[in-house]
User: Fold these one by one.
Assistant:
Number 1:
Amino acid sequence: MKCLADPLILEKAGREERLIITCDLDFADLLALSARTLPSVILIRLQDQTPGSVIPRLVQVLSECHEALTNGAIVTIEETRYRLRRLPIEPSPH
């Protein structure tokens, strides 16, 4: 199995119109800094990362955020909520 660096995974997922589901903060950070609109990323930030905990939350987010994920977004799944940020992420004014 060939391992790709995170930036190459982002590039490939965008080109193939795929969604990245990860626990790795680097993907969301790279995507935010790149000013890209795709691929979308779902970032799982749950303490209990067993399938019984993750899958119901993931199904909820996929259902409720389908349009945003199709158009480009980062969704962070937390214990009691999820946070959706549409892409591209604009830099904050200083």
Number 2:
Amino acid sequence: MNTHIAELRKKHKLSQEELADAVGVTRQTITSVETGKYTASLGLAYKIARFFGLSIEEVFDFSEMEEI
């Protein structure tokens, strides 16, 4: 899944470590979510979106997901 996390971090001058600390995960988790190796749980997606003051849809790109 594509995300806008890296761009948002850079815009806010945050390191992966700083974002990870703010949302309660490891830097490796943020790296994995940014690179698409790991899909964030709903809870983590919510925390990240909330941190940036955005909706989940503004941070995560769901366009490639299959419809149910």
Number 3:
Amino acid sequence: MQLRPYQKLIAWKEAHALTLVIYRITAKFPDSERFGLISQMRRSGASAPTNIAEGNAKRSHRDRWCYFERASASLEELHYECLLSLDLGYLSPQEFEDCNSRIQRTSYLLTKLLASLK
């Protein structure tokens, strides 16, 4: 299978790996959160690699910038949701730290990707 151009971006690879982690950890959340945190965390988690993929297909730097900014905002949203999950006892401190470090690494890579568009 041939890779799509976005799949070659390290930022996308990291965001995709983070999304897989989010799906795995939210599978353990209480059923009462199915339409709450589970759904929201999965959406914000998947939004980052989705926006990176879509933005990478745009021709203008301005359009790419907008999608990469959305991906960055989704990571911030996800960070808060992880923090809330920790405070509610749905995530262990180790799970939170793993998510936090993955979010920070992906955010850093997105910042570098955004800087390359200037």
Number 4:
Amino acid sequence: MTATAPATDTGIELAKVGKPAPDFDLPSTKNLETLKENVKLSDYKGKWLILMFYPLDFTALCPTEVTAFSDRLEEFKGIGAEVLAVSTDSVYSHRAWINTSRDQNGVEGLNYPLASDAGGRLARKYNILIEEANIALRGLFVINPEGILQYSVVHAINIGRSVDETLRVLQALQSGGMCGADWKPGEANIGA
């Protein structure tokens, strides 16, 4: 499967590092009972946001990532960041997945909301939508407290992401300086 052709052909502004992140207002599991509370980019103003797209609920690989980020959410919060995961599944599927135990391939106990991009509109803006399947590639985006996209990594759907690397990149961005290869929190910036 391949991602769509550049979205600029359809008049959609593509997400670009250094530019404002595409705005969104998506159905979410913020209120798991009613499913009536949307999640918006503006909800994260003043905080760093880890925006993580994944292909589908109830698959073999997706719960490993979604729960890995959830299990370490306090580390993200401790450095001023929140996590939001998005797929093209409905909020009803998300709720069923959250209510399914982890030993049954669910994400029970999830500590952050899942959002529904059912038509793939937001995934298209990030140029990660697999059109023929209406699912997203694994895209991870870091948005700063002012709403500017600072980091983007996208890869095939068969490889999970690293919480450790995401935390390292976030802390490097927060350092405000130049960070060499394999920089780790606590190390000096280049030229500092």
